[in-house]
Amino acid sequence: MSIISRRPNLFLALLILIWGLGYPVMKIGLQYSPPLLFAGLRAVIGAIFLASLALYYRESIDLRASWPALTISTVFNVGLFFGLSTISVFYLPAGLASVLLYIQPIVVGLLAHWLLGETLTRKKLAGLILGFVGVAIISYRGIQGDISIYGVLMALLSAVAWAIGTVGLKRANPSSIYWFISLPFFIGGWLIIFSGQILGEQWSQVSWNLPFFGALIWGSIVGLAFSWLIWLNLIKAVDATRISANTFLVPLVSITVGTLFLGESLTWSLAGGGALVVYSVYLVNARRAVV
Question: Which residue range is the domain that position 210 belongs to?
Answer without folding.
Answer: 2-285
